[in-house]
Write a structure and sequence with these properties.
By secondary structure, this protein is an alpha/beta fold. It has 15 helices and 15 strands. The chain is globular, with a radius of gyration of 21 Å. Belongs to the dus family.
């Protein structure tokens, strides 16, 4: 299952301290909606270093409304010794209530705040990567969450983007505010909202932020291989790297990064049969996640199957057969029919995965860019119409 890569200088990487939590190897699984639930986190963790594996976004309003899906997303596997949960919200009061629920129930050891989502249905209501433009609202959200978490010894971090677009950049100011309000670290996805997931991440912005703040900076964007992770450390001086789309369908990327940081040229190159075994395990973990509902598990697996099979010459019919599965038994039959000895497609290893398109247009609330602070009317509109409501 392992191959080798050419030797290259290994950057000096030190453990990162987040409040009382020591992250021995500063490699983070970046939270991804619909992806980083505990089954996928567990797979990545089993391959990877002793890093930080963050759960997918939980919306504060849904949590306060005690939505069952939100509660499910707050679950962690027993093997997860640092339980990292990401919260999203626009209303400071709702975010404070949701944080209080998490803290009082003892659900998490670390809370990350989402200010990086570029999805139009979020930004059109002032959420995600649009929110740091309003400095008063950004500061209040961070302040309230930190105030709840600090007495419990729970560190808070923030995920941000460069800005709305290059005429409306926010990352430097947002990181300074996060630092002043008590965040233990920030993660910068080195794209703007307008760039969405297209083009190339501008790592120079990560280097710029490293020089601008005293708290640790995790760099995020375009880490497709272990060599990319080494390059980001070397180019930016970041304290840690956050892995997003690069690990979709490749949880073993974390093993590659661990090897690279240890100075080893060994890389994972699983055959199709070995990938199939990982898919089968992933599906069974998802069945546990969905409380035994196999149909939900195999439906959730569909996007993962597309990523796992990326680059393998399996044909359209095989892919359609996987998409038609309704049970673990049907999924197992599809896996058994694969060419077990087909070698790993190295040609796609370093290519982008997942969403790569640009946003057609950044969607923002009316008049959002007119001022860096919120008006009373804007707050009434925003807080009465949270983009990610309690119904999920």
């Amino acid at each position: 299952m392992a191959g080798t890569e050419t030797d290259r200088p290994t950057p000096k990487v030190a453990p990162v301290q987040l409040g009382p939590i020591t992250v021995p190897v500063p490699v983070m699984l970046s939270p991804m909606a619909g992806v980083t639930n505990w089954p996928f986190r567990l797979l990545c963790r089993q391959y990877g270093p002793d890093g930080l594996y963050v759960g997918e976004m939980v919306t504060a309003r849904a949590l306060v409304a005690r939505n069952p899906k939100a509660f499910r997303l707050c679950r962690f596997a027993p093997q997860e010794k640092v339980r990292s949960l990401q919260l999203y919200g626009v209303d400071p009061q709702i975010m404070e209530q949701a944080t209080r629920m998490v803290v009082d129930a003892g659900w998490a050891d670390h809370i990350d705040m989402n200010f990086g989502c570029p999805v139009p249905k979020v930004t059109r209501h002032g959420g995600g990567s649009a929110l740091p433009w309003k400095t008063d609202l950004f500061a209040e959200l961070v302040h309230r969450v930190v105030a709840v978490c600090s007495p419990a010894g729970i560190p808070v971090t923030a995920k941000i983007r460069v800005g709305i677009d290059h005429q409306h950049e926010t990352f430097l100011e947002a990181a300074h505010i996060a630092q002043e309000e008590g965040c233990a670290a920030v993660t910068l996805h080195a794209r703007t909202t307008a760039e969405y997931y297209g083009g190339h991440a501008d790592w120079d912005r990560i280097a710029q932020l490293v020089q601008a703040v005293d708290i640790p900076v995790f760099g995020n964007g375009d880490i497709w291989t272990a060599e990319d992770a080494l390059a980001m450390f070397a180019q930016t001086g970041c304290a840690g790297v956050a892995i997003g789309r690069g690990c979709q369908g490749r949880p073993w990327l974390f093993a590659d990064i661990a090897a690279a940081l240890a100075g080893s040229p060994e890389r994972q190159e699983p055959t199709l049969g070995q990938v199939g075994a990982i898919m089968a395990r992933h599906a069974r973990l998802l069945a546990e996640f969905y409380d035994g509902d196999e149909r939900m598990a195999v439906h959730d697996m569909r996007k993962h199957v597309a990523w796992y099979l990326k680059g393998f010459a399996v044909g359209g019919q095989v892919r359609r057969d996987f998409m038609a599965c309704e049970s673990l038994e049907e999924l197992d039959r599809c896996i058994a029919d694969l060419d077990q000895d087909m070698p790993y497609p190295r040609a796609v290893a370093g290519k982008p995965r997942g969403r790569v398109r640009y946003a057609k247009k950044v969607r923002l609330p009316y008049g959002w860019l007119d001022s860096r602070t919120t008006t009373h009317q804007e707050r009434e509109t925003l807080f009465g119409n949270d983009p990610m409501d309690a119904s999920y």
